[in-house]
Amino acid sequence: MPLRFIHCSDIHLLDLAGTSPTRFLNKRLTGGVNLLLNRRRKHDPDLFRRIVEKAHQHQADRLVVTGDLTNLALESEFEHVREHLDKAGLPVTVIPGNHDAYTRGSARERRFEQYMAHLMEGEREPGHDYPFVQRHGDTALVGVSTAIPSLPLYAVGRVGDEQLARLGRALARLGDEGLARVVLIHHPVLPGVAKPRHELLDLDAFGRVIAEHGAELVLHGHEHKRIEGHLLGPGDRPVPVHGVGSGTYLSQKPGKHGAYAFYTVDPGGVTREYHRWDGSDFVPDPSTPPSTPPSTPAAHTAQPR
């Protein structure tokens, strides 16, 4: 049976209830200013509620959120997000983004993992949170973390050598079993796509893991825009890479609309329906082709939209 799921990202659900001003005496100071002047008026949580409704209309098996569920990695935000996801009415898979490990304290306390562990259940190597593997028939979701705290005005990520080694072992094992492997990661994995100070620090190393072991699809968020491209897998077989716009973004700029994608995946291929926010509803985006894994080799490219 194929896996039918909704992919969204960067929903940035906000709740500052009970937050002391002293919690902003760190990187949250610049983040809080950004919330007041920019992000808060450009994102609408009602769009995420609409995505959940759309998931039910599509009769999706699962909702997948590739990071940045919160803004400042505060306990009140994680509680708020968990409540929304637990009430979604369908299974949910999540991975963390840079905003979910916004400060050293939130990362040290493993705050994301404490609140979201039940949405990341699956196979993993003992003693490690990532990557985790969720099997659904002939398809496996492989959750990777790039979430690390960084300096103010930076939004970089890193997988890390040890997690990359575990990822390689997981992809090899799943590939040997003939499963369709969907890698979930927050930061873009294509060169030249991320803005300065937003990049994945070990992007090349991630690409080498895909080149050696392959995957059928890589999904990410982070840049709040639609991104199309591919990495090369074994034998120079292209591995599709898709980035999705923010699920709650009100922008009407081409390629940067609020968006989600509806996927059907099995070992025979991948199909996609991309939906963008038009100001009143999520509508199909005719400029996005339904995607199936390319059958002919091509160069390592990024095609941002």
Shape: globular
Give the name of the CATH superfamily: Metallo-dependent phosphatases
Can you write the helix and strand succession as a string? Answer: EHHEHEHHEEHEHEEEEEEE
The number of helical elements comes to 7
Class per helix and strand makeup? alpha/beta
Overall pLDDT metric? 90
Low-confidence stretches: 293-305
Radius of gyration over C-alpha positions, nearest whole angstrom: 18 Å
Largest β-sheet summary: 7 strands, mixed
N- and C-termini, Cα separation: 32 Å
Strand order of the largest sheet: 4-5-6-7-9-8-13
Count of spatially separate domains = 1
In helices, the fraction of residues equals: 25-40%
Number of strand elements: 13
How much of the polypeptide forms β-strand, as a percent range? 15-25%
List its salient traits.
disordered C terminus, Purple Acid Phosphatase, chain A, domain 2, six-stranded mixed beta sheet, alpha/beta, 305 residues
Description:
Mean pLDDT is 90; it is low at 293-305. The chain has helices at 28-42, 45-57, 75-86, 104-108, 111-116, 161-176, 203-213, and strands at 3-8, 62-66, 92-95, 132-136, 139-143, 180-184, 217-220, 227-232, 238-243, 259-266, 269-277, 282-284, 301-304. Strand 6 (180-184), helix 7 (203-213) and strand 7 form a beta-alpha-beta unit. Helix 6 packs parallel to helix 7. The chain is of the alpha/beta class. The chain is built from seven helices and 13 strands. The strands form two sheets. The protein has a seven-stranded mixed beta sheet with strand order 4-5-6-7-9-8-13, covered by helices on one side. A six-stranded mixed beta sheet has the order 3-2-1-10-11-12. The protein has a single domain, classed as Purple Acid Phosphatase, chain A, domain 2.
